[in-house]
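Title: Prediction job returns without error message
Component: structure pipeline
Severity: low
Priority: P3
Assignee: unassigned

Description:
Job completed but the reporter wants confirmation the result is attached to the right record. Sequence as submitted:
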Amino acid sequence: MKQMTSAQVRQMWLDFWKSKGHSVEPSANLVPVNDPTLLWINSGVATLKKYFDGSVVPENPRITNAQKAIRTNDIENVGKTARHHTMFEMLGNFSVGDYFRDEAIAWGYELLTSPEWFDFPKDKLYMTYYPDDKDSYNRWIEMGVEPSHLIPIEDNFWEIGAGPSGPDTEIFFDRGEEFDPDNIGIRLLAEDIENDRYIEIWNIVLSQFNADPSVPRSEYKELPHKNIDTGAGLERLVAVIQGAKTNFETDLFMPIIREIEKLSGKTYDPDGDNMSFKVIADHIRSLAFAIGDGALPGNEGRGYVLRRLLRRAVMHGRRLGIKDTFLYKLVPTVGQIMESYYPEVLEKRDFIEKIIKREEETFARTIDAGSNMLDDLLAELKAENKDTLDGKNIFKLYDTYGFPVELTEELAEDAGFKIDHEGFEKAMKEQQERARASVVKGGSMGMQNETLSGITEPSNFDYERQELDATLSVIVADNERTEMVSEGEALLVFDQTPFYAEMGGQVADHGVIQNAKGELVAQVTDVQKAPNGQALHTVEVRASLAVGETYHLVIDKTRRQRVMKNHTATHLLHAALHNVIGQHATQAGSLNEAEFLRFDFTHFEAVSADELKRIEREVNEKIWEAIPVVTIETDIDTAKGMGAMALFGEKYGKDVRVVTIGDYSIELCGGTHVGNTSEIGIFKIVKEEGIGSGTRRILAVTGREAYMAFREEEEALKEIAQTLKAPQLQQVPNKVATLQEQVHKLQKENTSLKEKAAAAAAGDIFKDVKEAAGKRYIASQVSVSDAGALRTFADNWKQKDYSDVLVLAAAIGDKVNVLVASKSSDVHAGNLIKTLAPIVSGRGGGKPDMAMAGGSDASAIDKLLAAVGDNL
């Protein structure tokens, strides 16, 4: 077996499959494009689903890739096991209706065992297969594999709901008896016993059936096009090749671990307690790659995943004694390890470091809040004479503040308390079940459409013409090809067309189809790309259409012009975003309609009003400069050499179109554009908003819609001017500022009067002092307009020695507000209010000296006040 670096292993995989006629598909962005079923790209095949379900026919049916992926469904196991990761790389080879079982198994065995390639010892390889899949068993035997090395496993069948499915055959490497202390042997594989001896390094999925949940598996129908989908984990392959005990002792992780040693002053021991090293090394890879791909920490979705990863890593850093921000310092090491195939981490290093450091600093404050919560919980236990911290509270510390249960246990035990492990596990399980229930369904492949996949007739889109004569080559009605159609809805393909098929965020053209007499025969309502790339016109048939006849195709020119204005404005907006808020503001989706444009981009905070003003101004300046918009066709390498920017989520072939707007913007783009920026007329931003963690959206309008938007704002301003009695619109800001100043003055006067009234009322309230358990207390109902007035009472009370404890209750609207203040070290205000609040059907909490609560039962206020003395 050859000794190789991880970079060499990855490259050898790609080179081998390239030698077998496969195209190398680049690793896609971790954030899925046009796939709402996925939170992250989580496998090598995830980005190729469009090929397997038949919605797109690939240029080459043989594909290979090395795909970065993220999975966090079992994050708790990272660091505990030898092979769990949140980010990993899947090496894959795929056949879309081309070769099948015989070639896949033969080539897989060649790659693994040939001296020219990985050169694995054959006697160390074992294969599992689906018991009914005799073909795979026989193929392995033909390759020279011993029958004793072939293990039938009932679970070796891949399916996710309806759609492509089939048996799979897995390849394992035997690491020897030293990893099998109980000498169980091959039963470890046959009985699926968790072990470190037989390591799965490759899975070959033989996708040959259309799964149908309504029938037994034996009745599944064969797919019209059988496929091969394989996956080999790079981390596992490298661990086997480099003879590492776990995936972490390889060159993918050890440089990171060495940096953690320097930062912590601790030494990594492969045989000792090294979980924290592993968690940090794993999580920083996920963070660096995900942030580099445009995802940002937040409170939901992908953002929540990243925030949880970061907080878990930081807490493990603290366990290693690292108190300061440190994760961001590991980003260069991650980038250097992966640079040969993923240069983007180092290219975006400054931005990635900035985001991670900022998030670490924010979490430092959260840690303090979590520590305070734990202190309060332990104080409550002590007051109640209990010795065990409840599992729900441990989970809250874990889920909300990122406290690992081990850290909570350590701090609790230092204070003399035990923790409720069982309760924590129960709360964790409930949360996992809620998470599973909320997952978007439908992650399986779509059903193959053989009719559309079978359309091979050529069709050319003409960018320059808005109407032309074309021959009708394909008619599809009711999912069947036909020679003629006279009514209803149909799908049409012509040998050439002026109709733009929806792509790259630009909506499809609409228009009409006429016969030789100029009569309307069909209304075009949509145009999409067929699986083989032709423009597929969705039409409402008005008269007979026949294959082989010539028709006159006319697009809606006004609609096309409006769409083009918005599309070109999108390019200007993208460039302006880079100039104003930074190069990290990359496209995360777009839509160019006739009425508006929508542009999604990565950014970690709301765009300020001043920034929006500068962006809008810059775009309009480029419109006023009347810059020619030039489109050229060239090859992809030349385009990249020109500095053309590729748009997020778009796949480009060898030949591309490059759209240049002077030296201001240069992008790869297959859409249609105006000839000069002046044709856009005017550009106006109408809305900026967040649409997810780390993703912002700008809605804007151009031309007529922009003019109307400005007019609406002007009319609204005129109405305000009339209300303010301002003769000139320019006077409105000063009028408003004057009114605000007057309101502010009245508010101050009102607050002052309230304080005086409260002070006067307090004089009577503070006289009614009672005593219980050796403590003086005041418990009274007061009449106030808001909860802030209760705090004013408390502030006055603190000024003099009226009593040791103050309890005030007020009915405000249909709610009850309660305040507890304490000067006594024996009375914890937060604990006391937790006892009193339920009496008024409420809840609350706070610090030892001040606490607040809200309730809903005003009729029980007297009962609450009467209970104060009994609870001191």
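Comment from assignee: result matches the submitted record. The two ends are 75 Å apart (CA to CA).
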